[in-house]
Specification:
10 strands; alpha+beta; binds adenosine-5'-diphosphate; binds magnesium ion; binds 2-acetamido-2-deoxy-1-O-phosphono-alpha-D-glucopyranose; five-stranded antiparallel sheet
Length: 375
């Protein structure tokens, strides 16, 4: 038994601490994230209707500063709520809304010292763990583009950096090398090709950081985990209405958000697909995402950001593969795994996509130019 085991009592204790409408009747595991524990909580109202909530236990092995994390989430959701309302939108559907605890806080610490938070459940929406159609991916691009655009004037430096160097590819490379040198479980021998793949690309890991140091890429408010399943899609209209999973909202580079979306979504394969013949970087998906993202966020990005969109895509994909590989070498302690070698499978899909991107580089540049106003 791990020391963060969860019992039904823990879940009910946490749910009961929030200001819920009606009588709590159910709490079931929900969603398929790699880090937090998510539950859909159901309450019966007196008039017979049902009200649902999303209850989450924050993974404090990963998020070591849960209070700072919740301060970021509260600040961003309040800010977005105000702008959405001002623009005539629906703040209860177009941004997350935190439910306070009975004593007026945005989070609850349970009797084991675990941190929990609760959101209003946005009904009549779906999320996709894998890209099935160009249209859905296009709508997710517009949602993430809008997120970036609405937050363009938010002072990024006032947010806490809850996980330092989260997308710093130079630092990620160093951490990979440390895990490789330690090789605590003697696993490096099984992944020699993957290790070589990373080592050959060390120079690339400096590219965005150098541009940032030179003052060419500005620090912005970024989401930092822009997988397609972090956008709620309206069941009826098919539009991406609400960006969720705000744990990693921090100061960062716009290219991290654009790049992470492409990494996850510019393929029809799952992130952990074992049959690599199915894992292909799809230019048509790259194109629809680039189109949607630039339609909405194009005006707030500078020419260096736009010119480096392909590099953002490649580096976020390389970084993610490197992180899965690092976790495998370190004994699978970070990402939840559901089978032996799961992190290796995930790493291989990412490196296949990096290779494909390298082979399609000129096409990626051509597509960006087609939709960019500045380059
Ligand atoms: P994780 O960090 O584990 O990825 P998420 O915050 O992304 O957790 O939530 C997991 C899943 O729960 C999402 O993919 C989505 O399907 C669902 N979800 C999260 N928040 C809401 C919400 N406010 N309303 C409806 N569904 C939600
Ligand atoms: C994790 O929590 P989830 O599944 O949305 C990870 C991301 C990775 C992603 C890979 C805090 O995201 O950085 O890109 O897995 N989140 C954290 O699927 O490390
Ligand atoms: Mg998520």
């Amino acid at each position: 038994m791990g020391d963060r085991d969860l019992t039904r009592e823990n879940i009910l204790e946490a749910a009961g601490s929030f200001e819920l409408e009606g009588r709590l009747t159910d709490a079931k595991p929900y969603g398929g994230g790699h880090i937090n524990d998510t539950f859909a909580v159901v309450c019966d109202r007196e008039d017979g209707s049902i009200k649902r909530y999303i209850l989450q236990r924050i993974n404090t092995n990963v998020f070591k500063k849960p209070v700072e994390l919740m301060e970021n989430v509260a600040a961003i959701t309040q800010y977005l709520g105000k702008i959405i309302k001002k623009n005539g939108g629906d703040p209860m559907r177009e941004t997350l809304n935190l439910i306070p605890t009975k004593d007026g806080r945005n989070w609850y610490v349970d009797s084991k010292g675990e941190y929990w938070r609760c959101y209003h459940f946005v009904e009549d929406t779906v999320t996709y763990n894998q890209v099935k159609s160009k249209e859905d991916f296009y709508h997710s691009a517009k949602a993430f583009g809008k997120f970036q655009m609405l937050l363009a004037d938010y002072p990024a430096e006032t947010l806490h950096e809850t996980i330092p160097n989260f997308h710093n590819t130079v630092d990620r490379f160093e951490k990979f090398k440390e895990a490789l040198e330690k090789d605590i479980l003697n696993r490096a021998k099984y992944v020699a090709d993957e290790i070589e793949f990373v080592l050959k690309r060390e120079e690339d890991t400096h590219k965005l950081i150098n541009l940032q140091k030179a003052g060419k890429l500005p620090l912005r408010v970024t989401h930092n985990d822009t997988k397609m399943n972090n956008v709620l899609i309206d069941k009826h209209t098919g539009e991406g209405i609400c960006v969720i999973d705000l744990d990693t909202v921090m100061p960062g580079l716009s290219l991290y958000d654009y790049g992470d979306s492409i990494r996850f979504g510019a393929t029809y394969a799952a992130e952990d697909e074992r049959d690599l013949s199915k894992v292909n970087f799809e230019l048509e998906l790259f194109e629809v995402y680039t189109k949607g993202y630039l339609e909405v966020a194009g005006d707030v990005l500078n020419s260096y950001e736009i010119e480096n969109l392909p590099m953002g895509a490649k580096l976020m994909t390389l970084e993610c593969g490197m992180r899965f590989l690092t976790d495998y070498l370190s004994g699978d302690t970070y990402f939840k795994i559901h089978r032996e070698g799961h992190n290796v499978d995930r790493c291989r899909t990412q490196f296949k996509l990096v290779s494909d991107m390298e082979a399609s580089w000129e096409d990626m540049i051509r597509i960006v130019k087609k939709y960019a106003k500045w380059v």
